[in-house]
């Protein structure tokens, strides 16, 4: 077991230690301000051999000849949609047909919408083809 030891000090020693602690805290705060405050650049006298950025010196202007250049540019008014490249043909295709529920007998298939999605199972890649048939339901026969 740890033994607890009681130390007694006089009131004057206590006040002295209290003053030391507050003085050390003040010194620490001052040092932190010195270390972490915003620093401004110090003025460094410029080297006479180096030119100044803000000195304006007359620059000799050469006479330049002008040439007229013209060109024509074709402007397309329609915005082109970015196209996705087709998925490689050598990949295995898995077809999934999604048919509408409650389709009447008189419905005629007029086309289909095919979506291809690249799928990944550990060790293999394949293309999942989702086929959604489109039907026309005619009421007059």
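-> sequence recovered:
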């Amino acid at each position: 077991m740890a033994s607890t030891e009681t130390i007694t000090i006089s009131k004057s020693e206590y006040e002295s230690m209290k003053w030391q602690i507050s003085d050390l805290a003040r010194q620490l705060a001052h040092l932190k301000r010195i270390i972490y405050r915003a620093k401004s650049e110090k003025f460094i006298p410029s080297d006479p051999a180096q030119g100044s950025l803000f000195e304006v010196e007359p620059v000799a202007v050469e006479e330049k000849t002008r040439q007229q250049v013209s060109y024509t540019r074709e402007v397309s008014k329609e915005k082109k949609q970015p196209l996705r490249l087709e998925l490689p043909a050598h990949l295995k295709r898995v077809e999934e047909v999604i048919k509408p529920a409650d389709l009447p007998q008189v419905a005629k298939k007029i086309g289909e919408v095919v979506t291809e999605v690249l799928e990944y199972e550990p060790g293999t890649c394949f293309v999942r083809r989702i086929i959604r048939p489109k039907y026309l339901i005619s009421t007059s026969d």
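Residues 92-137 form one domain.
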